[in-house]
Amino acid sequence: MIRSSMARRRAIVLALSTIGATALATVVVTNTYAQDVESATLDSVVVTGSRITRDGYEAPTPVSVLGADELNALNTVNVADAVNTLPAFSGSASPRSQNGNLSSGATGVSQLNLRGMGTNRTLVLLDGKRYINAAITSGNSAPDVNSFPNALIERVDVVTGGASAAYGSDALSGVVNFVIDHDFTGFKGEVQMGETKYHDDRSLSAQLTFGAPFADGRGHFLISGEHTHSDGIDGTEGRPWARLPAAVIVNPNYGTGAGKSTTVPRYLVRRDLGLVAGTPGGIITSGSLRGTYFGPNGAILNGYDFGTNVGNNFQEGGDWEYSRIENGIDIAGSVDRNVGYLRTSYDLTDNVSAYFEGQYSATRTTNTANPNRRLGNNTISIDNAYLPQSLRDQLLAAGETSFKMGSTNADMGRFRGDYHRSLYRVAGGLDGAFDAFGTDWKWDTYIQHSETTLEPRTYNNGITPNYLKALDSVMVNNTPTCRVNADADPSNDDPACVPYNTFGIGVNDASQLGYVVGVSYRREVLQQDVAAFNVSGEPFSSWAGPVSLAVGAEHRIEQVSGWATAHDEATDFFAGNYHASHGKFDVTEGYVETVMPLARDMKVAQELDLNAAVRATNYSTSGYVTTWKGGLTWRPIEDLRFRFTRSRDIRAPNLGELFTGGQAGSGGTLQDPFRATNGVPELRTQAFSTTKGNPNLKPEEADTTGFGVVMAPRFLPGFQMAIDYYNIDVEGSVQAPGAQKVVDLCFQGNAILCQAITRNPVAPGDPFPVGQIFEVITQPQNLIGQQASGVDVETSYRFPLSGIVGSFSGDLMIRAMASRVLKLETKDTDGTVYDGNGVVGAWGAISPFAGLTSPKLRGFLSVSYQGDPITVTLMAHYTGPGVYANGFIECTTDCPESTPEAPTIEDNDIASMTTLDLAGSYQFQSFELFATIENLTNHQPPTIGGSLTNSYWQGQGNAEYDRVGRQYRAGVRVKF
User: What b/e string do you get for 785-819 counting C-beta neighbours within 10 Å, with b at 16 or more?
Assistant: First the structure.
């Protein structure tokens, strides 16, 4: 029976593929995307929510459009920033987010996230073609919009609903299609410069585009190039709202011991926080010398005020400013971006055209992240070569032979990320038209090859085994010498070892630093090959009108290969620790879609259309899956239209989830119940957590429901409004359990997960039978479920001002959009449901599990005057208030006892944020001057306390809010 079922499934795929290959004899093709865009008004833009063209307001699946005028009015340096103004996007990646992230190599990318469901669940297309991913890590396997040819993007179509039946895997939360202007003729260019109110993040972008017909109009040539540079924002000190860190901490007064109480809130948000076990020049954390720390040139400083220990090696108050680290983490990395695009097309006959296109992009992002920290876990012996004699004498007097020490190693510098990413893509195809059965048909076919090369580097990266050997030094003939070279055992000698001085700032020379730091590096190449064929048209008419049909087939191969340094592969570095990835899969699929009119010009229905699609897909790794969609659009009267869709959508596991070799992230805090004192688990602050691929994953499956209403009242010409509800229910979500979850389940008796934990050898005198955790390996699994639901509202109104005052000229364009999340839940492996709706703070403060999170409400309003020669646009962006976590009980006194299910917190409120942008332009005969001010009022983001489990917490908002402040940009466009 199993063999028979599989054979039938494979037969369906083959049959659908054959239909696509032979459809020229029986059916006609409609080009997936209409090419005529007469203006930026929505009612004249033909967009695609399916493989059969429909206006955005008429499609059964909601579609939002950013047209050319709107893109120009926003004047963004990167088109991804324009798309992210739409409220349906939440948690997208950009060069201003993930800036403390080193291990994934994904810093600096622009990746889109619809519904807050993850960038890997948003399908991104360029001209209707699937685009290669920018990285293979599980959470960042998505295309990088930085590599798109911004100068040629004519519009952006956003399908805010499941569309796997039409477009394939990854379209679980929606599709974003960037449409290129193939027919541009003439010459155009643009130069734009900008900076912030704080005179940083200076940017320069330049674009040149040329298009011309040839061969008496049978051919068309198009070429475009652009360069963008942004300085980035070093550290955080320039912003008033970032002068202090912020974190969610455990109330030191909470508990049952002496002087403590369970009637006070368990959690607090505080801003005067620093490290308790590390300073730039080192601090002694144990014994009689505790509190002795070291400054420039090894100066001995006494009496460090440790303040209040709030756990995880952090302190509140005291000398916290001397040990803070978050102020050196860049708000935004620097970005250099170069993109080139070429396309040529030629009409082979009156009905058949051929085209070739090539694309190349190269981006480089640099950022400064955490210091090379060793927090209280360096053991220093009394005979250390660099220990000042005065301190050695104190140790002798106290009868001590060693002590613990922590340092953020100022001499080693902070981690400096340097990410090189390049892409090239070539595609060629044919499209044409012919008559069959008395109707017009269109078809297209293409092949495409893409390669992304990723080369992340982490400079100033401590090499752990070298550091530990260099740290342990003794005097030999009055010369500091590594102990491994001074003992009597020649088997452990390291002739390269140069002793390292941990006592002070500016006390190590280049040779010392050259031994303890290195460059973490990997090279990774992703390849994608696609062959596709589509055909559509109207084969016959029903009682209500022509029936539209689209048929197609696609075959895709994706693979990754890589290389990493020996130190990376051995997890020797303090951070980074890249591992090479190797793997490959292929997929064959075919689809059929139809739009069938059911009624026309009847009393109960001026229009009633059925939209249905089915796709058969076979993955070499995860097997066969069927996706489908059914939708209805009903127009009872001319002014009103209702739409409904129900679909089964998938997201197949990507290269990263299947094959990644893993990147070992450091700095996370783990509680180790195996090493507990009086029932209190030991904290391990610098254990590595490595996520590796799982080739046995299956596709995620989602049932998506949507219904809405579109209004276009005749008494108000130019006005349209759409209100849509969506519900996405995902089963078998791919998620890697957190390192803490692996440790906890191991402690509860899961022997298989215990094998994923590596420990250091038990040190002499250690009272525990197991050593400290060194590394925890996690693998993604199909173990959880997720659900998202909400309501989207979009309205637009365009009217001539002469309708108000006859002497006025120009049009007024108003567009408003809002997205209200009703539910955003994630079910954990143990059945616990986490509510992420409205969560914009530190989820990790109360749980090691990371679920979906998003603001409850986001909104966008633009009011634009479009005249000749002046255009002025005012835009408002709104992000609603949020919380750190749902389920918190907010109180200050007389609190109920805090529980894991209902923890108590002093303040669970995170304020909303509204920013205003002002843009304008003046059109001369052949050129246009334009300028934009973002965050016109320099509105500061709300204070958001990070989680102390993340050592790069910051207090100036997060990626959902503007963290930059007022920005100015101005430039000129020319067009001939």
Answer: bbbbbbebbbbbbbeebeeeeeeeebbbbebbbbb
Q: What is the mean pLDDT of each run of 10 residues along the chain (976 residues)?
A: 40 36 30 30 43 56 81 82 89 72 69 88 92 76 90 90 84 91 95 94 95 96 96 83 83 88 92 91 96 96 92 87 87 92 96 96 92 90 96 96 96 94 96 89 96 94 96 95 89 92 97 96 95 94 91 96 93 88 95 93 91 94 93 93 93 90 69 82 74 89 94 92 94 83 86 87 82 86 88 93 82 94 86 86 52 91 92 95 90 91 90 95 92 95 75 56 92 94
pLDDT at residue number 25: 30
CATH code at position 543: 2.40.170.20
Report yes or no on whether pTM surpasses 0.90.
no
- What letter represents residue 589's amino acid? E
As a whole number of angstroms, the distance between CA 254 and CA 251 comes to: 5
DSSP string computed for 724-792: EEEEEEEEEEEEPPPHHHHHHHHHTT-HHHHTTEEEPPPPTT-SSSSPPEEEEEE--EEEEEEEEEEEE
- Quick one: which H or E segment has residue 480? strand 479-482
Q: Which two tokens stand for residue 84?
A: 């992210």
Q: State the pLDDT at residue 103.
A: 58
- Report the distance separating Cα 630 and Cα 616, nearest Å: 15
Asked if residue 746 is part of any domain, the answer here is: no
Residue 724, pLDDT score: 94
For 830, counting Cβ atoms within 10 Å of its Cβ (0-12 exposed, 13-18 middle, 19+ buried), the class is exposed
Contact 913, 939 (CB under 8 A): yes
* pLDDT the model gives residue 49: 56
Q: Are 442 and 30 in contact (CB under 8 A)?
A: yes
298: left (phi over 0), alpha (psi -120 to 50) or beta: left
User: DSSP state, 37?
Assistant: B
Structural domain including 715 reads 2-238+331-370+417-459+521-653+694-736+779-975
pLDDT at residue number 34: 29
The residue type at 271: R
Rounded Cα–Cα distance for residues 680 and 661 (Å): 34
- The span from the CA of 299 to the CA of 292, in Å, is 10
Measured CA to CA, the distance from residue 272 to residue 289 in angstroms comes to 25
CB distance 165 to 627 below 8 Å: yes
- Whether 725 is covered by a domain: the verdict is yes
Contacts of 606 (CB under 8 A, 6+ apart): 600, 635, 636, 637, 638
Dihedral (CA of 48, 54, 57, 60) sign: negative
Element (H, E) at 469: helix 464-471
**Strand 46-47 to strand 54-55: parallel, antiparallel, or no bridges (unpaired)?**
antiparallel
Check if the beta carbon of residue 963 is closer than 8 Å to that of residue 96: yes
**Nearest to 816, CA basis, from 759, 878, 884:** 878
Would 230 be classed as within a structural domain? yes
756: Cβ contacts below 8 Å, ≥ 6 apart: 742, 746, 776, 777, 778, 779
Burial of 703 (0-12, 13-18, 19+ CB in 10 A): middle
Does 794 fall in a domain? yes
pLDDT score for 14: 37
Round to whole Å and give the CA distance between 90 and 504: 44
For 380, list phi and psi in degrees, rounded to 5: -115, 125
Q: How many domains does the chain have?
A: 1
Residue among 797, 922, 920, 814 at smallest CA distance from 868: 922
Which residue do the tokens 């050196």 mark?
Answer: 328
Structure tokens at 520: 């973490």
What the block records as the tokens of 185 is 């003729």
CA distance 347 to 218: 5
